[in-house]
C-alpha cells in the first residue's frame, strides 16, 4: 500500500483549494493519503477530507498564549514530526513556501518530495513551483490555485470532478462580512444595500451573516443599515459558528455573497452557489470559486491586482464600480447592458487545463493572452492543447529548456508527478 502526504500548513481557504490534489491521490485507490495541516484547521480537515489521515501541527500559533502553552505546542509538534518520519512516504507534496515547510521536507527522502524540498542543507524548489514563480509576475493571466496544486499530478482528476455543480438549497442567502485582507471586502453599508436588494429579489429570503469573531461588529453595522423588514429576517452568526456549524449552514443556503474568503471556497466545495466580489489584490483567475454554477464580479482597473502589503495610491478606485447604482440592477438581471463601468461579470467554466472564468458582461482584456498561456501549460503537463507550445511571445518569456527536460524525464519514468 502506497503512502501519500500533502503538507498544507497555510490557512482556511488554502486547505479547501488543495482538493483537486487530494481527490486525485484518493482516486488512485492504491494507498493512504495523509494531510499535515495547522492545528486550528484539524476539525475542518476531518470534515472536508474524511478519507485522509490528519496530522496537525501548530504552524501559526493561532489562539496560543503563555509559555506553558507554547511549550506544549512544541512537544506536540515533535510528536507529529516523529510520527510523520516513521512513515515511508512514496510521495510528499510540500505546497507552501515557508521556513517551516523546508524544515518539514528535511524529514523525508529528498527524491520523494515535490514542491519545496530540503537536500544537503539546501532549499530546493521543484520545476513546477519555479514556473509558477515566473508566471506570478503576470498575475492578470494567472492560473487557479486549485489547478496549480492539483497538476503536480499528471493524472489529476478532471476539473468537473472536483466540486459539485452549484444549486440553491433553500436556506436563504449567506453574507460573508469580510475577508482577511481589508481592502478586498466591501464596506458594511454598501454590503447592506446589496444584500437587502438580493434578499428582496429572491422572495425576501432570510440573510445569514457569516464571519469570525473579528467581524462581529461589522455584522452589527450591516444590520443597522438594513431596512427593518430585512433586518428582522437576518441573523448575525459572526463569531458564533464552529467548523461543523459552518458546513451545515453554508451547505443549506441558496447562495453566498462574499469577497475572496475561505467561506467562499467552502461554499464551492459544498455546491452552494457563490456570488463573489473581487477587488484590490483579489483576482478571480488566481483564487476564484472552483466549480460550475458560480458568478464573480471582478473589478477591472489599470492598477489591479495589487498587493495588500503596499498602500493604495488610487483612493480605492477598484471600489467605484460596486458603488455605482446600476451595480445592484446588474446583479439582479445579469444583463450585460446593466454592467457598470469598471466591473466585469464572469461565469465559472472549465477547459482541458482546469478552472476558468468566461465574461458574461464587461470586458476581459487579457482573454487572448490567457488562452495562449493555458495552452502552453496544458501541453507542458500533458493535458492536450493545440499547436506549438512555444508559438507566441508570451510563452517564450516563460520557457526554460530544463522545464521540458524535467517533464519529459518524468513521463519516461511513468511517474504520476509533475516535478
Structure, described:
With 419 residues, the protein is an alpha/beta fold. It folds into three domains: 2-123, Glycogen Phosphorylase B (Rossmann fold); 126-141 and 366-419, no CATH class; 173-363, 3-Layer(aba) Sandwich (Rossmann fold). Helices cover 37% and strands 18% of the residues. It has 18 helices and 14 strands. It has an eight-stranded mixed beta sheet, with helices on both faces. A hairpin with a 4-residue loop joins strand 13 (343-350) and strand 14. The longest helix is centred in the N-terminal third of the chain and has 19 residues, at 67-85. The protein starts with a strand and ends in a 7-residue tail after the last helix. Mean pLDDT is 90; it is low at 404-415.
Outline the fold blueprint.
Blueprint: E1 2-7, H1 12-16, H2 19-27, E2 31-38, H3 42-48, E3 53-57, H4 67-85, E4 91-94, H5 99-105, E5 113-119, E6 122-125, H6 127-135, H7 145-150, E7 173-176, H8 188-201, E8 207-210, H9 216-224, H10 228-231, E9 234-236, H11 243-250, E10 255-258, H12 262-270, E11 274-278, H13 284-287, E12 295-299, H14 320-323, H15 326-333, E13 343-350, E14 355-361, H16 367-380, H17 393-398, H18 401-412
